[in-house]
Amino acid sequence: ETGVTQTPRHLVMGMTNKKSLKCEQHLGHNAMYWYKQSAKKPLELMFVYNFKEQTENNSVPSRFSPECPNSSHLFLHLHTLQPEDSALYLCASSQDRGNSPLHFGNGTRLTVT
Amino acid sequence: SQKIEQNSEALNIQEGKTATLTCNYTNYSPAYLQWYRQDPGRGPVFLLLIRENEKEKRKERLKVTFDTTLKQSLFHITASQPADSATYLCALVFSNTGNQFYFGTGTSLTVIP
User: Fold this and answer.
1) Which residue, among A6, A32, A15, has the nearest Cα to A107 in the 3D structure?
2) Looking at CA atoms only, how far is residue B41 from chain A in angstroms?
3) Per-residue confidence band for B31, with pLDDT thresholds at 50, 70 and 90
4) So what's the pLDDT on residue B29?
5) Is A43 on the interface with B (CB under 8 A)?
6) Distance of alpha carbon B39 from its chain centroid, rounded?
7) Which of B4, B43, B98 minimises the CB distance to A106?
8) Which residues of chain A have pLDDT under 50?
9) Distance to chain B for A105, nearest Cα, Å
10) pLDDT score, position A57
11) What string of H, E and C letters represents the secondary structure of chain A?
């Protein structure tokens, strides 16, 4: 186990649906991240939370809405997505926002139909 | 903008040989460079970190070099085994961008028995 758990592992949703991705880390880390991974593209940082405060939003469309209720949990709320949003969504955590290695979950494979 | 290139998309080598993967970047040198391994259906797993002022780092059969003049990092796996087959990602961390990680697209390594 990686210490970072993501649910669900797979999700298929229509463009009019609303769903949420969940991430939980058991490592006592202070920073949590959402990344998007599409085929043949680099990992794309979406959001960063440090000590529960959002510190970065990399020009992500508003149809993606993050929530960090505490330092162990991170959510990504999805609504009115587009087919091009289909990808692997990875949650990660790190000790701090320095050079600490990222600890990734195994991701949610999202398909938008 | 910063560009990161990892040699070929796919690399096939014979078991027992040394695999060498490259990570080239443009513009500014990162403060840190990290290497991750990603297996199909899994999130990336941290392997090694090398700092700007370090030339080489080793961990068991893994070796990473960092040449800021060439703007290149090399990742070596000696005595390769079929279990080393995976995608390997390099990530650059720049201290002047709030320690944001910039990932390459990865190199898929296949070790042939």
Assistant:
1) A6
2) 7
3) confident
4) 81
5) yes
6) 14
7) B43
8) none
9) 5
10) 73
11) CCCEEEECCEEEECCCCEEEEEEEECCCCCEEEEEEECCCCCCEEEEEEECCEEEEECCCCCCEEEEEEECCEEEEEEECCCHHHCEEEEEEEECCCCCCCCEECCCEEEEEC
Residue A3's identity, in one-letter code, is: G
Please report, rounded to a whole number, the percentage of residues in chain B having pLDDT higher than 70.
96
CA distances from B113 to A58, B27, B37, B80, B110 (A): 43, 39, 20, 10, 10
Other Cβ atoms closer than 10 A to A88? 18
Amino acid at the residue B78: T
**Chain B residues in contact with A40 (beta carbon < 8 A):** 9, 105
Measure CB to CB from residue A102 to each of B4, B46, B105 and give the nearest one. B46
Mean pLDDT is lowest, of A40-49, B23-32, B73-82, for: B23-32
Asked if B104's CB is within 8 angstroms of A106's CB, the reply is no
